[in-house]
Fold this sequence. Notes:
By secondary structure, the chain is α+β, with helices and mostly antiparallel strands. It is about 10% helix and about 25% strand.
Amino acid sequence: MFRGPVADLRRGHSGLLLCPGPGDAELLGIRLPRTPVPVRPGSGWLVTAGAPQRVQVARHARDGGAP
């Protein structure tokens, strides 16, 4: 059984799953589409009210151009 913040995530059916593994979407009470997800940093699924959407999260470079 889920408790604490995990239970809140499951109840809300919303969250961000980056590079999810098998069964990770169960945390949000959904099943992800079988669409293959590229294995790269920042790639994943944004789940809002139980509806998954593919996303690529970007990271802003610091001053000077170095990440």
